[in-house]
Q: What sequence folds into this?
């Protein structure tokens, strides 16, 4: 599935203020009883005429989850990016656990992932990260019961 990605100038930092970006995106996925895997690819370019504020970034997210029964899974969904202007790559790998449970009538998915950046832009870039997830599981309005 493909589409467009658009960045709006919502930054509070003067360095990034006024930056509109636009580009294509593509999502690929695979679902089976043993694995759920896929990736989102985005490419963003700036819409500015200012040569000092160039944006040319490939980014996205890849994911892999292995169901282990009863609404539980092992896997991760790291975000990655590559800046074509500065030739800087950020690429984490990780592992995590997630499960679905109900709070009253509402099902929720909760999970914890740990990621390590095998590539980071510089010595001050993010190396380790922990992602805690808590999200409601909402029924699809167009799906039959």
A:
């Amino acid at each position: 599935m493909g589409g467009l990605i658009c960045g709006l100038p919502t930054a509070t930092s003067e360095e990034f203020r006024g930056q509109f970006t636009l580009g294509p995106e593509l999502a690929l996925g695979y679902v089976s009883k043993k694995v759920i895997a896929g990736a989102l690819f985005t490419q963003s370019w700036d819409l500015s005429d200012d040569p000092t504020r160039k944006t040319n970034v490939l980014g996205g997210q890849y994911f892999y989850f292995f169901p282990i029964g009863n609404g539980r899974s092992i896997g991760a969904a790291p975000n990655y990016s590559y800046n074509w202007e500065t030739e800087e790559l950020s690429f984490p790998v990780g592992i995590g656990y997630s499960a679905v449970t109900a709070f009253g009538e509402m099902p929720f998915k909760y999970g914890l992932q740990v990621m390590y950046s095998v590539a980071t832009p510089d010595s001050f870039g993010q190396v380790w990260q922990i992602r805690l997830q808590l999200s409601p599981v909402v029924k699809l309005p167009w799906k039959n019961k």
